[in-house]
Design goal:
This protein is 19% helix and 34% strand. It contains three helices and eight strands. The protein has a four-stranded mixed beta sheet with strand order 1-4-3-2, covered by helices on one side. The chain has a four-stranded mixed beta sheet with strand order 5-8-7-6, covered by helices on one side.
């Protein structure tokens, strides 16, 4: 069961046409751990939460015109969720598990200039999920040189 009140931090809430199916699928495909579900008197999912590491995500049904699944928006996303695997975890195996569960892998695992190996997947309703694991620890000077960027702490630095 989730702790209440929660500690300071960020969490995302993701809307689905069929939140019950999504909840079950996210556990199978991505390894998210169920924390709790709230069911209404008719057994419909009113709210749910899952955890991955020290992070949580809320899974729910569409509940207003402003809270919609990409499946009802022509597949469009206004945000994606990034999930960081623990160092040493096998991201290629994670990708294959997601693929076997029906995820649409839209970017195969690839090592990035900043030292993470990442892949991107779409779930059955079109939400885009990015997964990464650090495979090489790099300094900002190293990734700037390799990627052609300039890293700063703030925009006005």
């Amino acid at each position: 069961m989730a702790d209440h009140p929660r500690s300071k931090g960020l969490s995302s809430a993701v809307c689905y046409k069929d939140a019950k199916a999504a909840f079950r699928w996210l556990e199978e495909a991505f390894g998210f751990e169920p924390t709790f579900v709230l069911l209404d008197a008719d057994g419909n999912l009113a709210h749910s939460e899952m955890e991955y590491g020290n992070s949580s995500i809320m899974i729910g049904n569409e509940w207003s015109d402003d809270h919609r699944s990409p499946a009802n928006l022509g597949g469009k996303n206004t945000q994606t969720v990034h999930v960081q695997l623990g160092q040493g975890e096998d991201i290629d195996a994670h990708c294959e598990k997601a693929r076997a569960a029906g995820a649409d892998i839209i970017a195969e695992p690839e090592t990035q200039f900043y030292g993470d190996r990442t892949y991107r997947a779409k779930d059955s309703e079109g939400h885009i999920w990015t997964f990464g694991v650090t495979v090489a620890e790099k300094t900002s000077d190293e990734w700037d040189a390799e990627g052609g960027f300039t890293t700063k702490t703030r925009l006005d630095d």
